[in-house]
Structures are given as C-alpha cells and as structure tokens.
Amino acid sequence: MTEPIDLAEATAPVVNLASDAQFMASKLLPPFDDDEIETELQFHHTWEIEDWDSLPDKLYSPAFDGGDYSWKIFLFPRGNKFNSVSVYLACAPKGQDPANPDKDGPHWTCCAQFGIVMWNPDEPSVWKENKAHHRFEAEESDWGFSQFYELRNLYNKSPTSDHAMIENNKVNISIYVKIVKDVTGVLWHNFRNYNSKKETGFSGIRNQGATCYMNSLLQSLYFTTAFRHAVMGIPTEDEPDKVPAALQRLFFQLSTSSDGVDTRKLTKSFGWDSGDAFTQHDVQELNRVLMDNLEGKMKGTSVEGMLNKIFVGQMKSYIKCVNVDFESSRIEDYWDIQLNVKGMKNLEDSFKDYVQVETLDGENQYQATGFGLQDAKKGVVFTSFPPVLHLQLKRYDFDFIREQMVKINDRYEFPTEIDLAPYLDESIVPEESCEYALHGVLVHCGDLNIGHYYALIKPKKDGHWYKFDDELVTKATMKEVLEDNFGGDLLASDLAKSRVSNISPSYKRHTSAYMLVYIRKSRLDEILFDDKVPQHIMDRVKAEIEEEENARREREEQHLYMSMKISSIEQFKKLNYFDIAIWKQDPGLEDQSPEAHAVVYKAKKSLTAAEFIDQIAKSINYPYPERLRLWRVGERDNKTKRPGDPVDTSSNLPLEQIFAKNLKVRAEINLYLDIADVDPTTGEVIPWYDNDLELGPRLLLFIKVFNPTTQSVHGFMTWVGRANQKVKSLIPDVLKALGWDPDTKIRLLEEVKPNFIEETDIEETFDQARIGDGDIMCIEKVESDLSSLPVGGYKTATDYYNFLFKRLHIVFRRRVDHDGFNDENDNSPTPDVDVWLSASDEYDHVSAVVGEKLNVDPTHLQFFVTNPNGTVKNVIKRKTIVSHMISSLHGVSPHIILYDVLPMSLKEYETKQLVRFIYLTDGISQEHRHEVLLPQTAKVQDLLPYFESKIKLSPEDLSKLHFWVSSNHLFSQEVPLNTPVSEVVKHDTLYAQVLSSEEQEWLENNTDLSEGIVIKVYQFHKDPTSTHGVPFQFLLKPGEPFRETKMRLQKKLGMFDKLFERIKFAIVDVQHYDERQGSPYVEDEDEVLYDQFASDPELMLGLDHMNRTPRRVHTERAIFIKD
C-alpha cells in the first residue's frame, strides 16, 4: 500500500539557524584539501551585545581562551574606512593581551582557520557569515573583514525573513576557530621576514630575470651529492673563469650563504649575456650541454668518468625477425629518458609505451641481410639503469589543428617508488634491485609561452621534502610533491574541500611536473651523503668574494682616485711590436704577451708625486724609491707613443694638479718608469737635466734587436747618451749587452713609425740624425745565419717591420660541409691553424706556412672564402694575395679562411669534378651523403664502381640503381647513366636509389599509359611553395583507390604509422599555383587519382606535413655553454 505524501511538508525549505553550532562549524570550517594539515583544536565562542547603539567607534570583546592562546573580537560598529560593519579576530599567547601583544618577546605563531557570524539572537535565522584563514603572529595579530555587513542594512528586514539583523538593539557575534598544526613552518606565511636558511637550513638561488628553470636544475644537481662531490674534484686553479670553478663557487655558497645565491658568475662562465638571462630555455637541453662541458673538463683528472657512473644508462634498439634467426641491434648510452605524457595515465604507462614492440609485416616487412623481406619485431629495451635517473616528461606537443606547440596539462601520476625491472632486457639478470625512490620533482607552472619553474627535492635519504622556488625555500607536504603536480582537472573531492571559492568544475591545473629525478634505492647511501667543501675551494671562493667586495668599495670611492698606465723595461722586453709597450688592447694584438701591456695603477688624487712613487716601489718590492723616475708618455704627431720628459717629483703638488690637463679633457695618463743613475762617489741620484753645453742634453733611447730565427723585434735595453755624441757611440754598449763579438757588423735602424723604418748614419750625431728622448733604435746583424729561418720567415728587420705593419690574424679552419657531406675515410689532420700573415703575402707563401703547421704537402692545400655564417663562399684562386682573400671579411678578427687537404696536388685536383649525391634507403627515409672525385669528362655511369666498392651494392641492385636531380626540393629530371657529371652538378641535389623491380620495370617501359603513369611527388608544410624533404617519382596505377595508393606511398616514404597519419595529400600545379585559390586536398579514400594526373602532366602530388629537419628560426636564441 502506497503512503500519501504531504507535499507542503516535502517542499518546506530547510532553515539553518546561527544558533546551530554544529551546522555553523561544518559550514565555516570545512576539511582541508591537504591530509597533512592536522587539527590541534576546534572551538567556538559567542559575544552577546546588548546595547549596539551605545558602542564606541571601535572596541574589543572580553578575552576568551582557546588552546594555548587568548582571543578577542575586534569590532568597528560604524565601519573601518568603509560603510560596513568591520569585524576582526585578534590572537595572542595566553598571558598577553590580544589587543596589544608583546612584539619584543619570543616569536610565536598560530595558524587558524576561522569564521565570523553576526546574527539576531531573537531570530537566529537572520545571520551573516564570512570565513578565512590566517597565520597569527605579533606583527599580524588580528585578521578579518573590513566590509562584513553594510550599515544601511542593519535595521532593515532580511531578504529571507521579516526580521532585521539588529532588533531590540541586540546582536550576537560568534567566532568559530580551528587551530591547525603548521607541519611545514610556512602555512599561510606572508614571507615578509622569512629567511630560508634560518627556517630550513638551505639557501635559495636568485632569479636573474628568467633563470628559474636553471635554478631548479641547479638545486637538483646540488642535492645529488655524488654529482656535487665530482664537481668539487675538478682542478680549477688554472681556469678560474670556466664553468667548473663557477659551479664550485655556487655550490660553496649554497652550503654557507645565509641569503639567496647569485648565479651571474656562473652564467658569465657559460658565455651568456643579459639576453640569455631573460630567455627561458629547456631544462633538458641545459642539463645536457652542462654535462658535456663538465665531462670534458673532467678528462685526465681523478674524477674522469664520474658523471657517466652517476647518470648514464644503456638501452638497446633492435629489430628481430619472427621466422628466421636474425636480429639487428644497437646499444646506446642515455643521460635521461624522454617519456610521453599525452594519452598516458601514469609513469608506468609511459614506460610500457616506451618499450612497446612494433610489428613489421605486410607492406612494411623488414629487409634482413641474407634473408630478404621478413616479418619482424621492432622496439627498444633497457639494458641498464643508472644510479640517478632523470626522466623528462614530454609536456609539450605540436597541435596540428592549431598548428603550434601547446602544453599538455593532462593528469599524469608518478609514484614515490617504482620498480623498473619489467622494462629491462629479458636476457639480462640484474645484479641489484631496480627499485627507485623519488628524489626530485621539477615543476612548470603556466602555459607554453609564459610560466615559472621551481623544484621539490628530498635532500636526505630519510628526510623531509622541500620546495625550492628561486630564493624561497620552504618545507613541503607530500600533497605539494605529488598531487599538486599531477596536472589535469581538479578532482571533485578537491573542489569540495578547496579553500578557493568560485572554482569552475572545468578548472585545469597549469602546474605540472616536467622532470623527475629517481635514485636507485640500493645506491641511496652512495648518492646522498654528507659532503664537505674542500678547503682549497673554500679559500679560493672566500678570496674571490673578498676581492669583489673590495672592488665594490673601490667603485664607491672611485671619484677619489685616478688611473694611470705605467710601463717599464719589463714591458719593453716582452713586446714584439711597435713602440715600447701596449697601452690599449686593440684588435690585431692578440698574440702579444700579457706582460707587454702597460700596468694600470690607481692612486688617490691627493697624493704627491713622491708619495705615488713610494706606492709603486712597494708594489714592485723595490727598496730605493728615490731612484725611481717617471716619464710622461705622449702621443706624437705620427701616432706613436713615446716618453717625453720626466715628471717633477720635487714639488708637493698633488697628482690631481700635476695631471690636471689630462683630467680636464679625460685623456689617458701614460707613464714610463725608469731607474735613475747614481753618482758612484756620492751615492746621490744624478739629475736628468744639467748645463753641459758641450755634450748637449741627455737622451733616453730604447734599443730593440731583430732575430730572424724567432722572427721578432724584442726590446732588450735602454741607453742614456748625449745629443752631441755620434750614433755609433752606443754600439759597444749594445754589443756587450747582447753578448756579441765586438767586431760584429751590425746595422742600426730607427723605428720612426710603423710604416717608416729607416737606416741611421752612425757617423752623425744624435742631434744631426734627429734622434731624441724616447726614440727607438733597432739592431740587426749585417750577415745573419739564415739556415734556421722558419718557413715563410723574413730575412731582414726592414722586411719584418713591413710584415708587422701589414700583418693580419688569420685562422685556417678545416672545411666542414654544412650539407652533411663527409668523407668517412678521410683521416687527414683537422686542427685549426692560427697564424699571422702579411696582407701582401702570396698564395704559395700562405700554403707553405699552413702546410708547415699541418705537416702536409703545401701543394695539396685548397683554401676557401667564407660567408658570415662560416659556410663556403667560393674557392680562393692560386694567384690571390692575402688582402684579397679576406676582402669580404672586414671588421672580423681573427679572419677565418677554410682549408681542405686534397688527396692530390691542387693543380691536378683542378682537372677533376667533385660529385655529391644522396643515396636513399628504407624507402626514402634514410639519407646517406657521399662525395666522389671524378675526371671533368666523366659521366654518371662512372659513379657505379663507387657504389660497388664503397656502398657494397650487388650486381642486381646496381642494375636497378636510379638517379634523379632536384632543385628547391622539387623533382627536376631523371638522370640517365650517360649524362655528363658537369651537367649534374648544376642542380641542387643528385639522388640515387635502388628501385623495386616493379618501379624499375615501369620506368623503363612506361609507354602504355593505360597501365600506369609515373608522377612527381614532393613535400611541403602548409604553403605548397614552402618545400622540404626529398622529391621523388611514384607509380600511379589505374583504378587504384587512394587508400591503396597511400599504403604504397607509406612504404616508399619509409614512415612509421604515427607520422604518416599526420600527412595531408594535395594535388598541386606548382607552375600555376595561386595562393588565393589554394590546392585541393584528397579527402575521399575511394578516390582514384589516376584519371586526373593522366589528363594533366603538370600536376604533382604534394605531401603536406611539418618539416622535421632540426633548425632554429633566426630570432630564437640557442642555449649554449662556451668551452
């Protein structure tokens, strides 16, 4: 019997009352979405207000206790800057007043979720609530709502009742509080006074602009202790500016710094500029180039091979026949594993996908050597896993609908532990467990083009997880490690528990893991251990930091100092160039010794000259400062810089006044430091100026010597004489200083200026020869032993000075073919040759010099002019001088000229023709590039012996070898065997392929079009004129539906199913293409293409798909680390 339903009762609304504490608590204090947040205490309290109108503008409720804290309600009955009742909750430790907590006492915090309810005590169905959470502390002891309830509505009827909030001048305010345990120490923290090192023991890393991706990787590597230990073992004393030294510094600072660590020193060692610091790159790419750099620096050291032991595993790619005993396999090292995320639920699914076996059968059978076409299984399997496993999650993919890269935010789960044994090669019995523990999660928050990176890391084997977000380091919960980084839609349970209001059910997380770090459980103690920074690294870094601090202080006091460049006899002796020292580092002086450069001194402007000389004497440990003399070095009209007159050190004028003229116009202050002669009788310094009219004034001359064996004009002494002495008077002193026989015949030349070197008449006086202070004399033997003259060397000082004036820095670099053509059998030397040549040197001289350096026959060298991008521009002709060789490279230093070592003399080589071709296999998917040298009269058929001997083609395959040429990736024409190679090389590319028997027959007997036609096929992306890939001919059969045509096309292309499925097929008339009309795509699988192509021979079949040839657009900055 059916019971009657009381409709009035069934539809009556449920009235929730503010007096129902259980209901209010459930509404205002919902469960947290993080199971690790524990409730310590939950309570509620009601403040009954009996006379609302008499309340002051602001007041506190009586105190009430809750847990270890005292609480008050802070009320603004008439509003706090707003036309609304303002109400707040105030907190303080017990024994303190919540209205005025002790800000100077011990630090305290109380994390609380709370709700405030204002309600009518006589009609509890009228109420207003709001909820929040807050971290209460002395600096922020109250929190609440400034616009809690509008003043104008206090006495008005509620929309849901006939009663107002305040009636009879009474109202209640209830507080519901849930005090929670702060398990991370940062729950609801504002981070205003947060110190990562103090709170967690770890330091963060500062973000330079967009280097958060790098920071997350660096923290992961730092806490891989075995890696850190290996880096600390790299010797860096001789390379303080290289990557290992900078990384050692960073790791030292991470272990000791109380603030965020700066990475500018590291990125500078990478060779990065500010543009790189503001460009986000791929973490995997950065990790690989960093490992390559460090691996190179570790060679020959005690830590060589350490990175391989930590990070490198091996995998096997194989193709195994099903019906015959044949397997083709290749073992490869890997530093990380890239796993698909799209379409996968979790990490296990991705590994299963990675080792998934593909069946090769039917039209896609495998050509097994010695067995012909066979059904086969193709796949990848792991043969070993490294102690530290880096997993790259492929969170980015190309969207063919939107035609752009997009981020995959699908939910993807990963465990804290995983057993990888199921993915090992079945034939391998592992020596240890393949169980791995999660150590790090690198996270990206945002979308493809914008976002932020941070890392979650477990530094200790049995320790806590921490979040490393640039400078901020905080303790993390397991929810933050796992669930928050799975991506995907928020779960329904999360939405119900979330503290965030108004979340759409379709809300997607844009925070997801993109790199996981797992450590083999059996190796945890080997990878994670306590490691101290070596003392020598600590000392070096501390010294660097102290030096940088001194430099900072110096910059702040820069206005009190002045800079001067000073040279001495030491610089003069090291110089192999014009003048007495290098005053400025100009292009073309890279080969000069650093010791030939004038030394920069900084001195206070207030010092006197004598005080400055004392400072210099101390810096060079010279005990007699009174003997030191400074000369002003000025620039002469002929652009040389020579000493002119001594600086007066007798006055007490400050340096600022002595060099006032230079400072006023901001001109360089260049000085020469000399040691004055001493009177042997008195021991007094002999003054430079005297009144000896007979001998004339003193002269300070600089003497150089030309050495044809070493090809140099080094300075070796200064000489002081008198203007009225004859030039030959210096010869005995010079010969004695050189240790030459007194009867040695020499020639004296004056270095007037770089392009003016003249012989001096030794019978004239210095005054007559117009030789004065600061002039340079060069000595050379009249009869030198030239038996040890180097190849291309200069015999006389005059010739050598002419070389110095015209010399150019040129690097000869082995030609690398940017089209990928290489001779695998070429074992000739490949180093760079760094030389200095005269602009007037001829080709044969250049060949002799470069041949000597390479230890090859100079007649076998060929040189090439380069384009700005380093590719070959054209061949340098044999009668070209050096200045013409580099005429197109103005502004570039050093100049780059490419060279090649020929298998024969250049003269003979010029009678040959270089033929380059691409041999295609596996359909057309595998390109093998070759080059062959043939006589200029050769024909294409002369390539066949190369195919037989080098490529090992059988006579049957040779008979089916087919050649064609293309231009701009479009099929140009077939190439018969009797075609002269001189005609072939005019085209972009020559292709060769062994055709199937069917293709061979149709190409040779294609007169009957009713049985099939051969069409041209090419590849493009979106725009039919944006061609790429290999063009080819294809047999189109009459009556064949397009679905069958596609199957044969896939076999011809040699493409896997996933790639082939993305191709769209278009019928294109390339010669008459109109972009406004576009090209018709073939949509119908049953369409027969034969009739359309047979009626119009100009048509081509276009394959529209993305060009997968790796290349960067010119605006994209490639990530790199310089050597």
Automatic annotation (TrEMBL):
Domain USP, residue spans: 203-521
Enzyme type, top EC level: hydrolase
Pfam families hit by this protein: MATH_2 (PF22486), UCH (PF00443), USP7_C2 (PF14533), USP7_ICP0_bdg (PF12436)
This protein's record includes keyword Protease: yes
Residue ranges occupied by any MATH domain in the UniProt entry: 42-177
Record EC number: 3.4.19.12
Catalytic activity of the protein: Thiol-dependent hydrolysis of ester, thioester, amide, peptide and isopeptide bonds formed by the C-terminal Gly of ubiquitin (a 76-residue protein attached to proteins as an intracellular targeting signal)
Keywords: Hydrolase, Protease, Thiol protease, Ubl conjugation pathway
GO MF assignments: cysteine-type deubiquitinase activity
GO cellular component term of the entry, any: cytosol
InterPro entries cross-referenced by the UniProt entry: MATH/TRAF_dom (IPR002083), Papain-like_cys_pep_sf (IPR038765), Peptidase_C19 (IPR050164), Peptidase_C19_UCH (IPR001394), TRAF-like (IPR008974), USP (IPR028889), USP7_ICP0-binding_dom (IPR024729), USP_C (IPR029346)
Gene Ontology BP, a term: proteolysis
Stored CDD domains: peptidase_C19C
PANTHER family: UBIQUITIN CARBOXYL-TERMINAL HYDROLASE, UBIQUITIN CARBOXYL-TERMINAL HYDROLASE 7
Assigned protein family: Belongs to the peptidase C19 family.
Name of the protein: ubiquitinyl hydrolase 1
Classification lineage: Eukaryota, Fungi, Dikarya, Ascomycota, Saccharomycotina
